[in-house]
Design goal:
Elements: H1 46-49, H2 54-62, H3 95-105, H4 107-128, H5 134-143, H6 146-156, H7 159-162, H8 165-182
Helix pairs in contact: 3-4, 4-5, 4-6, 6-8
């Protein structure tokens, strides 16, 4: 049987983290202009973008929880697909890390850390995006440890005016790739 839940009456407090643990605030569609922009999990008009999100239905609508980590049944069988380790248009690599962080430190602490990542991403997009780098910057901000992103910022903040956009873009990408390589992190989506 198929149920339609009143997504327009949802009460999700933090739209930058999906019920499932996806980093909505670090997703390229969160920063897309126009009708294909996504408001984040449970955000305004979310139902039009993701009309049948099983995680949201189970977590928020049925159980009135912000994220699955707050559920006593986490991780349930719904997460079996996540264990296979594939990504869609956005990285799923941090889903379990995010959920366990929320479970260990609480949602407020996690959201504060997430906001630092979001602020870094916005800074990258505003100062270094050449129109083709949004996905890469989103991945870097989602996958690199927070201290690595903060070190990146300290090293690159002076590039804002020194070079043209093309050069700044190349320098910041190389810096992020070097940081990822040093940590054995691949800044790519995992496809089947």
């Amino acid at each position: 049987m198929f149920y339609i839940f009143p997504y327009n009456t949802m009460n999700k407090q933090y739209s930058t983290i999906g019920c499932c643990g996806i980093d909505c605030g670090l997703c390229p569609r969160f920063y897309t202009q126009g009708t294909s922009a996504c408001p984040g999990c449970g955000g305004k008009d979310f139902a039009e973008k993701h009309p049948s999100c099983g995680y949201l239905t189970c977590c928020l609508v049925k159980r009135n929880l912000e994220v699955c980590a707050q559920c006593n049944e986490f991780p349930c069988k719904r997460f079996d697909a996540e264990k296979k380790g594939y990504d869609s248009f956005v990285s799923h690599q941090m889903v379990f890390v995010n959920q366990h962080s929320i479970k260990q430190h609480g949602i407020k602490y996690f959201i504060d850390q997430q906001q630092v990542r979001i602020d870094h991403l916005v800074w990258l997009l505003e100062n270094f995006d050449d129109g083709r780098s949004k996905n890469f910057f989103c991945l870097a901000c989602a996958l690199l440890p927070l201290n690595s992103l903060q070190d990146n910022y300290k090293n690159l903040v002076k590039l804002d005016a020194e070079f043209d956009l093309k050069m700044r873009n190349m320098l910041v990408k190389n810096s992020l790739l070097d940081a990822a390589k040093a940590l054995n992190i691949e800044l790519k989506l995992r496809k089947k």
